Amino acid sequence: MAGQEHRRPHVAMLPSSGMGHLAPFTRLATLLAKDHGFTVTILVPTSLVSVPESRTLDALFSSGLDIHRLPYSLPPPLSDNIDPFFKQWGLISRSIDELKPILENLNGLSALITDISLAGAMLPLTNQLGIPNYIFFTSSALMLAFVAHFPSLSTDFANHPVDIPGLPPFPPASIPPALKDPNHAFTTLFQANSNALPKATGIILNTFRAFETDALSALAMQAHVPPIFPIGPLPPDPLGPSAPMDWLDGQPNGSVIYVSFGSRTTISKNQVDELGAGLEASGVRFLAVVKSKVVDEGAQGLSVVKGRGIVVDGWVDQGSVLGHQSVGGFVSHCGWNSVAEAALNGVPILAWPQFGDQMINAGVVEKSGLGVWPQGWCGERVVNREDVCKQIKGFMGDVCAREGAARVREEARKAVADGGDSHLGLVRAMEKWSHH
Ligand code: UDP
Ligand code: G50
Question: Which keywords label this protein (predicted)?
Answer without folding.
Answer: Glycosyltransferase, Transferase
